[in-house]
Amino acid sequence: MLSAPQNISGRIRIQSVEKDVASVAIEYEGRTSDEAEFRRFLDLVEINIFRKGDKAVVAVSTADNAPWEGSDKSILLNMNFTLPEKMAVEVEGRFYSIEVLGSFQGLEIDNDYGEVYAHQIKGPVNIRTSFKDVTLGDVEGEVSILNNSGSIEAFNINCGSGKCRFETTVGKIKLENIIGEVEAITSYKPIILKGVNAGGGMILATNNYGEIRLDDVRGKLEIKTNFSRIQGDIINLSPGNSMVSGGYAEIELDRIRLDNSDLSISNNFSDVRAVFTGKTSAHFMLATDEGGGIHIKGIPLKPVSVTRNGFEGIVGEGESTLEINIRGIGRIDVLGNSGTAY
Predict the structure, then answer these.
(1) β-bridge pairing 116-121 and 96-104
(2) Residue 313 CA from chain centroid, whole number
(3) Is residue 36 within a helix (H) or strand (E), and if so which, with residue range?
């Protein structure tokens, strides 16, 4: 475990080794009037190493109201650790840029103003930060990343039977090659999910002002945004309930495969386009408000009910369910591509 106070910053780099050997290299940088002041600042920085239960602790401390606080002067503490790969790593950095590389058995980081980059972790990952970006790659284990205004990027993650959760208030979320259930939440910037395989589990993406893009995903969907479009391509729905909910922008979903799936798509005052591929056997229920339109092409639907603003029909045995509803004026396009079989 490494802890550092709020009135000092720098860089932390932690790398794994196969041996049962730990080491640390420390480098100081400072912005001071002269060398004498720099040395006085150094005297106020204390590093202690001790055991606490089953943890090895590196604690950095400085004087309260240190002389560089509130001025253009500073002291930076850069630390490079090599630690046995069988260890789990815990860092409380606050103002540090943190880089963790190696086959560690778990990772927990609590940081505020520095970037976080972590790679090749074989255990659970829990990262909390506020104002900078987080990048995570090659992880085997559950993941929880909570950010504030920074972006989150994660790739090559295997959550196993657990869940991977990514949340930021205003930042972008980009996830690629993820295995397991996924939850992605932000408000203003895009959510991009590529190569996400939740199996029979849930893929949840919630936004407000930012768009959501899906590319080659498998699982049950719960997708929601309000003021930007939702786009998807190669969507393999698992058995069970899926929901895609928009607001005031287009929803475009291409190459959808239904497998005893119940898919509900809703929007407000904007169009919905859904293109199906593979063998489709489903009960279709489509509706818009007055002034909207419904267009069906390439799917031999057998009509059950046709009204001024609604259509209900069945293709095949009706094993899946598709419901599309536009609350307001909008156009529904339901298409079968050239690879669709019935």
Answers:
(1) parallel
(2) 37
(3) helix 35-43
Domain membership of residue 90 as a residue range: 1-98
CA distances from 107 to 52, 173, 302 (A): 18, 20, 55
Q: Round to whole Å and give the CA distance between 65 and 3.
A: 18
**What is the pLDDT at residue 57?**
82
Report whether 178 contacts 159 (CB < 8 A).
Answer: yes
Q: Give me the pLDDT at residue 338, please.
A: 53
Q: Is residue 257 part of a domain?
A: no
* Domain total of the chain: 1
Residue 50 lies in a domain: yes
CA-to-CA separations, 106 to 42, 139, 144, 184, 236, in angstroms, rounded: 33, 9, 12, 21, 32
pTM of the predicted structure, to 2 decimals: 0.92
Quick check: is 216 in a domain?
A: no
Residue ranges for the chain with pLDDT beneath 50: 339, 341-342
| Spatial CA neighbour of 88 closest among 109, 104, 111, 110 | 104
Q: Is 72 within the bounds of a domain?
A: yes
